[in-house]
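@channel anyone free to eyeball this complex?
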Amino acid sequence: MKKRLLLAALFAAAVATLPAFSGQYHIEVVSKGFQHDFWKQVNLGCNAAGKEFGATVNFVGPPSESHISEQVEQLSNAINKRPDAICFAALDREASLDLIYQAGAARIPVVTFDSDIGGDTGGAVLAFVATDNKQAGAGAAVEMHARLKNQLANPAQPVHIAVLSQDTTSQSVGDRTVGFIERMVELCGAANTSVEGHVKYEKKVSGAKVVIDVGIPAETTDSAANTIAQTLFNRPNLLGIYGSNEFAAKAIVNTNETLNKLGPDKIVGIGFDAGSLQVQAVRDRTLYGAITQNPFMIGYLSVKTAIEAIKGQKVQDIAVPFYFYNADNMDRPEIKSCLYD
Amino acid sequence: MPDHVALPRGRTGRLKRVFSNQRTVALLALIVLFLFFCVAGDNFASYPTFMSILDASYYIGLLAVGVTFIIMTGGIDLSCGTVMICCALISGTLIKAGWPVALCLVICVLLGVLFGLLNGFMVAVMGLPAFIATLGTMMITRGLGSIVTATASVTFPQRRAPEGWFRNIFKVLGPDVPWGMLPTGLILLAALAAVMGVILGKTRPGRYITALGSNKEATRLSGIDTVTWEMLAYVIGGGFAGLAAISYAATYSTVLPSTGNGFELDAIAGAVIGGTSLSGGLGSISGTIIGVFIMSVLKTGLPFVGLQPHYQLLFTGIVLIIAVFVDVLNRRRQKT
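replying in thread with the prediction:
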């Protein structure tokens, strides 16, 4: 009995190391799911890199972005398969910390992508591949400010700029919101700009000429988001509104259907990502534009970095470039490939 | 509305009678709330705000009308929210595949009916507790929606697209209608609620469903086919979940798989605030509609008075508890 067990263990070990000998690497990718078209593009990018560099890529993800525990299980399964490397996009910064530590102990290199994990991972995470969300949010602020420059400089009455953000817990959404707010405050002058509306971001300045109103729905449902979008639209002298992800941009576009306040010579709306509703709204100039990430590139670079790490090469964090698109430039090939709908 | 309790008579009795009817109390509460937000809220009293209250009410309202029938039998439906999303996902996938929109909308409602039939069969024929049977259906429909769509979101045709006409069922926009927009969904919801109210309160099936909830055994012993009527309640519930799916798609465009949990509790809360008793046998469709509007007026109104949105859940919870407590108090008083 003992002998048989030993044999089985030996056999398992042999099978596990086999791909390494055959030159075919095995990489497990644990994503945030398939709900948004974004992740399909990430998946394609991962597969493309796998094909190019000779790795088998297994791409998994939870049913939705609120299924944290299921993602943790998927990560645990991925580690148990003893792959050559793991690429991981964390739904929750803290939930998978122990598992990542465990991967490190098993000497499985980990590359995080899209959303990083927080805390000490024991050196398991070798690189982080993502859009710099703060920079991308700041990019939206720069575009909005350029468009509204004249109205924002010394207005006779206080003017408003609204920000709709999905939640307060997600790292990427939070960064895009903060990035926008901070750059907008910088561009309009800190002494002149008051940030109001939500405790997390509040920074009130009395007598400010520019007021940035931040709205965050109580729950991630469409109706709650539409309600907040509507209250933001009702701000007096509203010049611009920014939605920091696909969900928020969708609420802005849906609410505008009744209010009809967005458009050229009206309120300047800027979204984030490229859901079909949003892309359509940019095309017909309801939205002034939106920031899009390059999900294919995120997937491609994650797997490429993982393979470099397996080979023992030195790897580092990669900030994947983002684009601002509007009705005029959205058909250029480099941007069109990022509008994944 | 069926009132099985003897109400106090006489002049002082009349006043008491008015206030011992939870539906009346709920209606007064709705009016007071609405007026409060009109006075205290910045910009609340406007046509677009009114429209957004309606937008947030259609799908919950339709779900709640259906679930009222089920609660009246003494049952419960935990699956209506996920059934709604599942119906929307499947019919949306068919639209994407090029099927005619009208056909897909019919399929959407029929799917709802089918899930209702499944629930009804499990409860009335197989004798499963409604809580468990519909919990199972909740999981099944969530899984099914994810399978059919391969867990990807489904976007319905835009308003300007030729297939987008179905959005006009709930809201017509454009320069041709007064004030630029027409809440057609309100007319539909009112008509459906009126018809279902009559069915529940004035027709034989409605009375049997009510009787089932009051005393199932006595109803069965008096020779009434309880299986059929109990199943009918679930079928109605399913059909309305299918209708709710259309309103959801028309209002929010994109439907995500693996969502829909929690909507069933909103629907149940609406029914209960409007005076439907969770133990069955007592309730009305008009009360349910009032309950739903109390919730959506709260939801829409609270941000207008400058409260951060987390308060909305807090206040809805308080309203729910007060509503049920008023009901409990009234019954206690009527017993003595």
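from a first look: Confidence is low (pLDDT under 50) at residues 1-8 of chain B.
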